[in-house]
Amino acid sequence: MSASALNYMPGFGNSFETEALPGALPQGMNSPQKCDYGLYAEQLSGTAFTAPAGQNERTWCYRIRPSVKHSGRYARIDLPHWKTAPAVDDSVTSLGQYRWNPVPHSTEVLTFLSGMRTMTTAGDVNTQVGMASHIYLVTQSMVDEYFYSADSELLVVPQEGRLRFHTELGIIDLEPKEIAIIPRGLVYRVELLEGPARGFVCENYGQKFDLPNRGPIGANCLANPRDFKAPVAAFEDKEVPSVLTIKWCGQFHETHIAQSPLDVVAWHGNYAPVKYDLRTFCPVGAVLFDHPDPSIFTVLTAPSGVEGTANIDFVLFRERWSVAENTFRPPWYHKNIMSELMGNIYGIYDAKPEGFVPGGMSLHNMMLPHGPDRDAFEGASNAELKPAKLENTMSFMFETRFPQHLTTFAAKEAPMQDDYIDCWSSIEKKFDGTPGPK
To answer: Considering the entire predicted model, what is its pTM?
Structure first.
């Protein structure tokens, strides 16, 4: 394995080159007649060959064996808690405002695969649109076990514990306040560094996550490309019986191989896993009056076929100053065409000071009204509007244009707060027919 396996290269969507052995990376050509060290050249394409130049993504890998050597006869297996869209359970009502306490840690032996618990699904994996949201629980490392998804890229958001992703292209260590994007088709295994571990996953069936267009914001703020880190080359040359699991159209298959598939000695390209420190996200906001839309907090977006309407937006609500005058500062009451699944990484969310706890989730589906509870409304309506720092807070949103359907696990096994809808029941009628604020 490369001695520099835990180093990273900055950039998002940029082209990289890295080698774990000197001279392993060919210069001037992608596929020489014979590669140094007896390596095989292989291309991993993340987009169609004829995608526009600015969107075309591929990586050339120089590996000990070609990937086809890591394949074999596949056998169907069952990961019963990992669901894929369309997954509509007629016994479950997805129409409603829902909130969950943290899914508790388990005493079971759970790897990153067996510990995946699907909460919602949206769209259709067979047409490569939509998403799924999951909770992961990890109590044990994957040992001589490997995985890749042909269905999706995974956005991993840790909430507790630390994980290490050993991927074909290098190693990524991940902890709370960081995220990782694992591309479709990339092989990896997950090691538990500190646990038990729990976190959130957005499984993206559609177009890849990218940085949002900033429009009038310009070149700076929000998430900057230099803060996304790709791993340097690292490889395993292990002759040991191993298992490779593949997710394909919602089905799981495994094959038995005689070696580690993480044998890429050098690579170059722009299709790679990345990690990002959420503490480097620079929010923007109003500095005089009124309330901007929450889209100003978008970290990443996965486009749909409708311009400006995302297949998925990943939105972050972190520490920031609030300074607007004569303005209701928390999120206002609203309903819209997007379905919003929120998760709390740590701290207190300003629109829900009670009940939305770290590790918890909420779902407000498309065109269902929601907003602050009574205490949040009264506090924001009567607060002295001096500059205030929102501290000890980090929540996020997986937002999609598609309705999110609850899984049976989310509806019947996860710790749903049955009284969540009651947080609005004490909102008072203030209208009395006379002018002036009440």
So the answer is: 0.95
